[in-house]
Amino acid sequence: MSTVLDQIIAGVRDDLADRQSQTPLDQVIAQIETAPAVRDPMPAFRAPQLSIICEVKRSSPSKGSLAEISDPAELALAYAGGGAAAISVLTEQRRFGGSLADLDLVRWRVDQPILRKDFTVEPYQIYEARAHGADLILLIVAALDDKQLSRLHQLTTELGMTALVEVHTPEEARRAVALGAELIGVNNRNLKTLDVDLSMFERIAGAIPDGVVKVAESGIKSPAHAARVSAAGAHAILVGEALVTDAHPGAAIAAMIAAGSINSQE
Ligand SMILES: O=P(O)(O)OC[C@@H](O)[C@@H](O)c1c[nH]c2ccccc12
Which of 32, 154, 182, 189 is the right S-S partner for 218, CB 3.0 to 4.6 Å? Predict the structure, then answer.
């Protein structure tokens, strides 16, 4: 039976084929020449305080529509004002309502490193991310075999970007570590069923060696949640829904950073 992840990826591949026929790869590669320089997100993630990657997300397969977001750059600026270490922009269209145009808008107005959040399955998407000014891309281990994973990871590094390598099981964490990933995200949401369980991070973080930056992703809605994953070893959290649905996202971010940084203030 096909999982939600399989269905999402089938749509992503269709949309990708359309873009590839409109803009051949050599044109995308030529666009990289004029793209802004890549920003390195790792120093901020390695800082003693809890870092937050704040997500621009209009809708999701689990919740449907979350927020209108007529101006993604305006929202990203509010995130930056609250202390975001990086901004995640969902570019998947069918289920998340995003686009590369959103990425462009945010890139023009915000100085923080930007994650192009999509279901990366082909090198084309990585060139495209770089051409549109992304600094990080997402690699979902559950969606890729080891050969694809290592090819896509290597290309990301060659283009000067950072890969956020996302896992949901101890076996996927083992594969991410074997790849040499320096930034690993534990998704508390199972992309095959969409169930969220905050204890996933706690269960998997211990299997990720020191030196790797650990990100707790999904289902983090409050300062208490931020404190919980920080106590379990998260250097950063990735938050979408709780911020796009909050009237004062900047204040919500500041409260999460404060609650999640108590452990680091020894
Ligand atoms: O909105 P939330 O529950 O705060 O989650 C944000 C982020 O973790 C989530 O959007 C996400 C994590 N991994 C993904 C992979 C693809 C699309 C989306 C995601």
Answer: 189
240: closest CA among 9, 53, 4?
53
The C-alpha torsion from 143 through 166 and 138 to 188, rounded to 10°, is 100
Angle at 24 between CA 32 and CA 181, to 5 degrees: 55
241 Cβ closer than 6 Å to some ligand 1 atom: yes
- Which position among 166, 172, 202, 241 bears the catalytic label? 166
Q: Which residues contact 11 (CB under 8 A, 6 or more apart)?
A: 94, 95
Domains of the chain: 4-264 (3.20.20.70)
Compute the distance between CA of residue 88 and CA of residue 74 in angstroms, rounded to an integer. 14
What is the pTM assigned to this prediction? Answer: 0.97
- Pocket of ligand 1 contains residue 239 by CB under 6 Å: yes
| Joined tokens for residue 263 | 């452990």
Distance 55 CA to ligand 1 centre (A): 8
Report the pLDDT averaged over residues 14-38: 97
Neighbouring C-alpha atoms within 13 Å toward the C-beta of 214:
24
CA neighbor of 5 nearest in space, from 186, 177, 189:
189
Q: Tell which atom from ligand 1 comes closest to the C-alpha of 118.
A: 16
Q: Is the Cβ atom of 217 under 6 angstroms away from ligand 1?
A: yes
Mean pLDDT of the chain: 96
Ligand 1 mean position, distance from CA 242 (Å): 11
Number of neighbours of residue 163 by Cβ within 10 angstroms: 25
* pLDDT digits 0-9 by tens, 188-236: 998 888 899 999 999 999 999 999 999 999 999 999 999 999 999 999 9
| 89, amino acid identity | V
The Cα 8–Cα 95 span in angstroms is 7
